[in-house]
């Protein structure tokens, strides 16, 4: 559709092609024969993963696979010897006795191969969880170490989504490599027997089987390309599925009549996904069908060749029967190899995404991760010097050239309207984000020159957009300081200061109540109750520097008063940065910083700012008017 025709249909932003997808698609353009160029690297990766996870089981899988494949040659040779004796001249009892040694060898070979197969199965089953744990833990080690700013980038989110699939593919890569080698060794063993009978049979057999193998590889390549192109749709579908089938969204879904809207969104996204799936199904079916037809014609040629050789007396009947058995075994081995090649390459691409993500994620790691930095000393002062921050893909700055200093023992407030940059500035001070310009100093030294973990250990952060951790109430609070064993009296003291103690003891199991309704005996808290738990977590840390971002937005007046009393108790002893829209709670702050559109526009105490008659005075007057009888907000009280 061309713009301006009037035929345009709304397209969700999530469905539009992003610039970073083009590079991903180019990685899928490698021809099928390019698969073989990548196999050595993928196999090395598989062996390295398995070896690191469990050396003993890796050796068992490798050794048993090679020995079991070699047994196939002895099995076919024994089969041929049995047939030679049985088809020979003389009485039947004599022929059976003559074939008995070969039968015994065949039975032993079959038993050994069966035992080796069991050993490989046990080893692979024991290896799988270890490989998966190692790969998944490495992924989470990375995702928990990158800067918060990484999650602002859409490309990072999609990269991580594919990497998650890649960690799952780690064990598949190992298993597919082992299975491919098993098939390959069996194929070599069968090929040796077939060549002994007649070399022409081997060439004919390859003609009969290779088209199927090529088709399987081509189909796998198509599936991988479709997977990469659909990562955004899958994430959008996941979100929609949760929106339509979760308890949290159910009330608003019904109150606002969102059912048809969400179903429409689902139909739009799923329609695009279904169209892609149908296209993929058509292309893969066509590819595999053509391969099957060509392979069938080739196989018919094998049987014609075998009949001609037998009729011409170029091979005996025993060899012909052995050849039939060998051809069937070779078909199974070739089918296994080609299928595993398809799986190995496809799974290997997912694993490449995983490895590539781990490498690319290094650019999001804090700078001191690459150097050894000293531990930060006890907090005395934090200085913000000309600091700015711009979020990815945004035209305006979130924080614009801000300079200020906060010293130990002060209680300071960041105030301003929504979007003024208060929370972003606090996040930079908390070492959660790095400024794009300027510097933040901890005790007179740039914060990135200190060990970041030692800085964060001295900072407590209470966020308005807090996460509801699905653990017990006690654990939720104790997570504020995991450097020392949790103590119940300390937990209850923090809860009391945050006005959360009475809420917790009223739960079915008190402090041991699981705060998640999706688990048995779990309970659900209101927004205000969760805010108390979050505040208690911050107070439990008893940090030198405490940042509280809208800590009372969902609290009732009594709980709010108790919380701000706890904050007031810190004044002069510990440092607190308070972000709030309720200006009555900041009138006793040592310093109030007023931000607007990311810039620091005013600074001073409450009396100074009111006397100045600027933005702060205007905002304070608006709120104060709401508490005055017979006064319209916006008019002088």
TrEMBL record:
Membrane topology: Multi-pass membrane protein
GO cellular component terms given for this protein: plasma membrane
Limits of the ABC transporter domain: 384-622
Flavoprotein found in the keyword field: no
Matching PANTHER family: ATP-BINDING CASSETTE SUB-FAMILY B MEMBER 10, MITOCHONDRIAL, ATP-DEPENDENT PERMEASE MDL1, MITOCHONDRIAL
Species the sequence originates in: Actinoplanes nipponensis
Highest classification ranks of the organism: Bacteria, Bacillati, Actinomycetota, Actinomycetes, Micromonosporales
ABC transmembrane type-1 domain: residues covered: 59-346
Subcellular location: Cell membrane
One annotated GO molecular function: ABC-type oligopeptide transporter activity
Coiled coil: none
Keywords: ATP-binding, Membrane, Nucleotide-binding, Transmembrane, Transmembrane helix
Transmembrane segments: 58-78, 98-123, 181-208, 290-311
InterPro entries: AAA+_ATPase (IPR003593), ABC1_TM_dom (IPR011527), ABC1_TM_sf (IPR036640), ABC_transporter-like_ATP-bd (IPR003439), P-loop_NTPase (IPR027417), Type_1_exporter (IPR039421)
Name of the protein described by the UniProt record: Multidrug ABC transporter permease
């Amino acid at each position: 559709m061309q713009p301006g025709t009037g035929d345009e249909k709304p397209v969700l932003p999530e469905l539009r092609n992003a610039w970073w997808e083009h590079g991903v698609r180019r990685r899928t353009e490698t021809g099928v024969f390019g698969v073989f160029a990548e196999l050595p690297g993928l196999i090395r990766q598989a062996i390295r993963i398995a070896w690191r996870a469990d050396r003993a089981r890796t050796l068992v899988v490798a050794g048993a696979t090679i020995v079991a494949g070699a047994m196939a040659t002895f099995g076919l040779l024994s089969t041929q010897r049995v047939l030679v004796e049985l088809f020979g001249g003389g009485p039947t009892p004599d022929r059976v006795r003559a074939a008995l040694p070969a039968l015994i060898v065949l039975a032993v070979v079959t038993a050994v191969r069966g035992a080796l197969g069991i050993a490989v199965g046990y080893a692979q089953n024991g290896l799988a969880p270890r490989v998966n744990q190692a790969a998944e833990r490495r992924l989470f080690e990375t995702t928990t170490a990158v800067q918060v700013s990484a999650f602002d980038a859409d490309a990072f989110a999609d990269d991580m989504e594919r990497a998650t699939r890649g960690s799952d593919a780690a064990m598949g890569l190992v298993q597919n490599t082992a299975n491919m080698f098993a098939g390959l060794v069996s194929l070599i063993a069968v090929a040796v027997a077939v060549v002994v009978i007649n070399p022409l049979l081997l060439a004919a057999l390859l003609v009969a089987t290779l088209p199927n193998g090529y088709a399987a590889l081509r189909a796998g390549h198509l599936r991988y390309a479709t997977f990469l192109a659909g990562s955004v749709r899958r994430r959008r579908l996941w979100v929609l599925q949760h929106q339509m089938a979760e308890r949290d969204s159910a009330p608003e879904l019904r109150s606002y009549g969102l059912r048809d809207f969400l179903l429409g969104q689902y139909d739009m996204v799923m329609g695009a996904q279904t169209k892609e799936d149908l296209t993929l199904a058509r292309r893969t079916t066509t590819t595999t069908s053509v391969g099957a037809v060509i392979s069938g014609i080739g196989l018919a040629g094998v049987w014609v060749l075998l009949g001609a050789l037998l009729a011409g007396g170029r091979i005996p009947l025993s060899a012909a029967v052995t050849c039939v058995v060998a051809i069937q075994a070779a078909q199974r081995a070739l089918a296994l190899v080609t299928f595993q090649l398809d799986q190995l390459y496809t799974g290997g691409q997912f694993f490449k995404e995983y490895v590539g993500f781990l490498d690319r994620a290094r650019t999001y790691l804090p700078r001191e991760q690459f150097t050894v930095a000293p531990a930060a000393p006890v907090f005395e002062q934090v200085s913000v010097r000309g600091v700015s921050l711009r979020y990815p893909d945004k035209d305006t700055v979130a924080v614009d050239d801000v300079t200020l200093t906060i010293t130990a023992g002060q209680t300071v407030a960041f105030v301003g309207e929504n979007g003024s940059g208060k929370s972003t500035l606090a996040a930079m001070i908390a070492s959660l984000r790095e400024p794009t310009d300027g510097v933040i100093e901890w005790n007179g030294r740039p914060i990135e020159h200190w060990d970041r973990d030692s800085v964060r250990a001295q900072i407590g952060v209470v966020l308005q957009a807090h996460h509801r951790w699905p653990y017990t109430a006690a654990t939720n609070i104790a997570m504020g300081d995991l450097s020392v064993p949790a103590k119940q009296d300390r937990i209850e003291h923090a809860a009391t200061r945050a006005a959360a103690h009475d809420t917790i003891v009223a739960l079915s199991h008190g402090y041991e109540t699981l705060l998640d309704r999706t688990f048995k005996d779990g309970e659900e808290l209101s927004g205000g109750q969760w805010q108390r738990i979050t505040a208690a977590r911050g107070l439990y840390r008893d940090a030198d520097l405490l940042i509280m971002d809208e800590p009372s937005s969902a609290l009732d007046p009594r709980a709010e008063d108790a919380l701000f009393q706890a904050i007031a108790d810190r004044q002069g002893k510990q440092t607190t940065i308070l972000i709030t829209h309720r200006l009555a709670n900041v009138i006793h702050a040592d310093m109030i910083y007023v931000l607007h559109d990311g810039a620091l526009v005013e600074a001073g105490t409450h009396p100074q700012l009111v006397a100045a008659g600027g933005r702060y005075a205007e905002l304070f007057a608006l709120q104060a008017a709401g508490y005055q009888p017979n006064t319209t907000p916006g008019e002088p009280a």
